[in-house]
Inverse folding.
């Protein structure tokens, strides 16, 4: 990454723009330095965050014993899991109709409707669903969160599955039927395994989007259900603290553990095209 | 002979577009039957209707005398070799071949035995555990064949299976396909736009254009006795000359050609005074050899050396141009120079008068 | 029952009940009278829209109030500046990535998208940690004796801009990268061969051809910025508001639902206008008019 300094042969390469490499390196520093600083300071034993005193894991222990945090984690995991399962099932069913159904009318309209949450500013959605819940008198915080999250997760689950189905030739399903597989068996044995990477990607995306959501959760929450980002936000508003650094670091570590294998799988699947 | 497939008054419309227009024919047991036509002629539609992927707008299709109209694809005892093979990418070769047998409810042992048999048949025994992506085009082709043949279908449908292969491999696969058909005794219905392929492999050829049958007979008949201009033009190369019928009797047909001479031909259905087209294929015309029924003189205007033979274009005295091809039998004596005057001759029975 | 309808029904049901009907209710609420005790009363009025522009004084006269217009203006301006800064950074970075070897490209793209998977709140918090009073940056500078005491770096437009650029820049890099990748590298050599220098090639060949990516990226950054909530709340403090947290406040602190709903409609209208302009442009480009 340091070869932006070397001139030499590149000076004559018309495709090489001097300075772009420097901007690239500075950009990655900008992108990662804040996170790295935060991680570093999570190991600072000093209660005053910005003054380094010595290495310590004590903030991690106190974070893990924090009941508020643990209950927020439980809420977030519950909401994300249920919303992901629901959104993915709804998305699979819609994607199958839109790319395999015969004589589907208004396919364009249907896709627009499914992708609505991507087009609206989230704050507008959050406000709208808040008013709906209050009008209907929905009190249960967990239920409110699950319903709202399922709704905005649907397009994130839908798009990868739809893309996978469109990239896949209908030949495979026809070949299965030609070889005496009834439609349901052809779906189970051929279509489903072949679109699995898409389903996996969609579910993964939904899960992360749900876990990470702040705007909607912050407005809808209450009724005894606070999600992790909302909880962290409330801590941030109280000010910088070493425990907060530790919590943030844990969240980053878990995100990395979840995302990296998915990314590796996606990379491998890209080569094994259909 | 027994008809395996019977197609009766079948039509297929897509909205206003008529893909197949009232077609009827039979395909016999143990036959290598080819449906030949340019792209968009309806040949693939016809094949997909036999397979059960599409339903005819009207008419009936019968398999072994039984109307299979309402039968979905997975209940028809026919199998298809798809154009791009459609091998299931997440299964290895053995699993691919075994799939149809499993669906038919075969036991595990019988399946394994049949899979081995099929792999052996297509010379792919050592690849049983490979995934389709690890195979070359020709190998995928063989596995697709094995997979489709494994359940012992009444009829095997092949949708341009050779089109994705390179030229040399295509030649080899032609022989293999033909051998496979003889070996298994299964009726093959082969769809292609390649006339050379059709002539080389088929027992019978159905020439299809604009959703209608142009001619249905064996390869020799199709090539030597085309029934209309389309068939004569689509299969092989030919020269067309406008003619007027002078007299027509049971013994002979006498036509006046634009070449300024009259030609006496075998009898035909044309009536006196009718205008028609005479077709004469380039290889039926000899250059500077002994006189035949029709003899003409002209100048060589164009010449293309093809190795085994040379194509000439010869301009006659009345400016008509005839394409002539000559086999290069002797190495040093292979071509006539440009602008040289040559004598052309052909036998009257080699020419055809078409509507 | 029709199988197609059955398969689409769940998606339609969710979107209808949780998205479309709620939006209609928002429209309804925006035209209601706000209830001083929170919520709203079922009485039609344009009061909440009027409130965006005017205050009512003691004598029931309307007095022009620029407070909310300023917030709307700031939102548009900061979002536009964010998109602009993102383009200026993202273009060289995307170009730089596209010139790397295949394996390095994959890793760099992974690094670009990675922060996106990390909780937004945590990422914004990292900047609070750095910029706050006695924060990491100030302590660091003090350590090297560069500053003695400085004004807080937080709670101003600059801090919000840094946070927004930081949050949304991956959305700019990816589409620009995609359009640069599509660009036939021979074109650059062809321009060079035809006596164009690097700078001219950049302006005449590379930039015009990566325009679709730049436009797509600008929309992808600009639109979410309009409704962003976290950056103004955590980095902007209470004083420098944007539309996102202004709307949110109407439903949390102020409990003036009608006013909040009317602001939400204004935001929605702004976003839709931009999306429509973009769609029209895309259509014209497709028709080959541009």
């Amino acid at each position: 990454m340091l070869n932006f300094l070397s001139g030499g042969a590149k000076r004559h390469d018309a495709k090489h723009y001097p300075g772009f490499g420097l901007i690239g390196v500075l950009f990655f520093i900008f992108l990662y330095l804040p996170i790295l600083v935060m991680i570093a300071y999570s190991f600072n034993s000093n209660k005053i965050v910005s003054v380094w005193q010595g290495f310590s894991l004590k903030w991690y222990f106190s974070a893990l014993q924090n009941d508020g945090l643990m209950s927020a984690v439980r809420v977030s995991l519950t909401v994300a899991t249920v919303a992901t399962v629901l959104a993915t099932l709804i998305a699979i069913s819609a994607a199958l109709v839109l790319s395999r159904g015969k004589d589907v009318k208004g396919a364009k309209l249907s896709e627009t409707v499914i992708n609505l949450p991507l087009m609206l500013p989230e704050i507008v959605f959050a406000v709208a669903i808040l008013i709906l819940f209050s009008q209907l008198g929905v009190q249960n915080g967990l239920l409110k969160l699950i319903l709202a999250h399922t709704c905005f997760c649907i397009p994130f689950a839908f798009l990868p599955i739809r893309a996978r189905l469109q990239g896949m030739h209908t030949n495979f399903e026809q070949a299965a039927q030609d070889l005496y597989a009834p439609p349901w068996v052809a779906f189970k044995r051929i279509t489903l395994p072949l679109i699995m990477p898409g389903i996996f990607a969609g579910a993964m995306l939904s899960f992360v989007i749900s876990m990470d959501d702040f705007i909607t959760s912050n407005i809808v929450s209450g009724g005894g259900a606070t999600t992790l980002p909302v909880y962290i936000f409330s801590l941030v508003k109280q000010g910088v603290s070493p425990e907060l650094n530790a919590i943030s670091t844990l969240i980053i570590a878990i995100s990395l553990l979840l995302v990296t294998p998915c990314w590796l799988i996606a990379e491998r699947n890209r080569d094994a095209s259909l | 002979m027994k008809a395996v497939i019977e197609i009766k008054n079948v039509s297929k419309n897509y909205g206003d577009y008529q893909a197949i227009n009232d077609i009827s024919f039979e395909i016999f047991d143990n036959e290598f039957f080819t449906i030949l036509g340019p792209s968009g002629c309806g040949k693939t539609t016809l094949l997909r209707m036999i397979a059960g992927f599409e339903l005819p707008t009207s008419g009936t299709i019968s398999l072994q005398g039984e109307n299979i109209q309402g039968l979905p694809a997975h209940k028809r005892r026919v199998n298809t070799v798809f154009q791009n093979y459609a091998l299931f990418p997440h299964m290895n070769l053995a699993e691919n071949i075994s799939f149809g047998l499993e669906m038919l409810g075969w036991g595990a042992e019988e399946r394994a035995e049949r899979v081995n048999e099929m792999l052996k048949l297509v010379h792919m025994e050592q690849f049983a555990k490979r995934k389709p992506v690890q195979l070359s085009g020709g190998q995928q082709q063989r596995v697709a064949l094995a997979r489709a043949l494994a359940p012992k279908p009444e009829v095997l449908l092949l949708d341009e299976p050779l089109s994705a292969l390179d030229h040399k491999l295509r030649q080899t696969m032609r022989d293999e396909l033909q051998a496979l058909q003889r070996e298994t005794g299964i009726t093959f219905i082969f769809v292609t736009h390649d006339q050379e392929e059709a002539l080389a492999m088929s027992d019978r050829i159905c020439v299809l254009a604009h959703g209608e049958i142009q001619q249905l007979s064996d390869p020799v008949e199709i090539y030597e006795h085309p029934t209309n201009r389309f068939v004569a033009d689509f299969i092989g190369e030919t020269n067309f000359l406008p003619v007027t019928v002078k007299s027509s009797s049971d013994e002979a047909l006498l036509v006046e050609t634009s070449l300024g001479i009259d030609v006496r031909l075998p009898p035909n259905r044309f009536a006196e005074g009718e205008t028609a087209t005479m077709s004469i294929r380039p290889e039926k015309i000899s250059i500077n050899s002994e006189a035949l029924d029709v003899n003409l003189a002209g100048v060589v205007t164009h010449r293309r050396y093809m190795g085994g033979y040379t194509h000439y274009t010869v301009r006659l005295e009345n400016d008509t141009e005839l394409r002539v091809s000559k086999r290069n039998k002797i190495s040093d004596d292979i071509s006539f120079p440009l602008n040289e005057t040559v004598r052309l001759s052909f036998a009257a029975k080699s020419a055809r008068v078409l509507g | 029952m029709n199988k197609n309808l059955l398969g689409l029904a769940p998606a339609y049901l969710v979107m209808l009940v949780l998205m479309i009907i709620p939006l209609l209710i928002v429209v309804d609420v925006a035209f209601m009278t706000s209830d001083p005790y929170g919520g709203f009363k079922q009485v039609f009025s344009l009061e909440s829209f009027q409130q965006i522009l005017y205050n009512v004084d003691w004598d029931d006269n309307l007095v022009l109030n620029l407070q909310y217009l300023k917030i709307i203006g700031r939102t548009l301006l900061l979002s536009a500046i964010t998109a602009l800064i993102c383009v200026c950074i993202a273009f060289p970075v995307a170009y730089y990535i596209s010139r790397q070897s295949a394996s390095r490209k994959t890793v760099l793209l992974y690094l670009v998208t990675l922060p996106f998977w990390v909780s937004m709140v945590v990422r914004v918090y990292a900047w609070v940690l750095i910029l706050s009073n006695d924060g990491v940056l100030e302590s660091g500078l003090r350590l090297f004796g560069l500053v003695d005491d400085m004004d807080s770096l937080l709670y101003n437009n600059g801090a919000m801009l840094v946070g927004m650029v930081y949050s949304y820049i991956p959305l700019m890099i990816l589409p620009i990268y995609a359009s640069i990748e599509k660009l036939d590298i021979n074109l650059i050599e062809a321009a060079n061969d035809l006596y164009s220098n690097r700078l001219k090639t950049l302006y005449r060949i590379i930039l015009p051809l990566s325009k679709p990516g730049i436009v797509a990226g600008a929309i992808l950054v600009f639109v979410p910025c309009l409704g962003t909530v976290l950056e103004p709340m955590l980095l902007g403090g209470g004083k420098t508001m944007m539309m996102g947290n202004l709307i949110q406040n109407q439903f949390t602190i102020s409990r003036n639902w009608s006013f909040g709903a009317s602001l939400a409609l204004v935001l929605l209208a702004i976003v839709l206008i931009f999306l429509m302009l973009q769609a029209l442009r895309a259509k014209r480009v497709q028709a080959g008019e541009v």
Observations:
- The longest strand of chain C covers residues 40-44.
- Chain C touches chain A through 83 residues (CB under 8 Å).
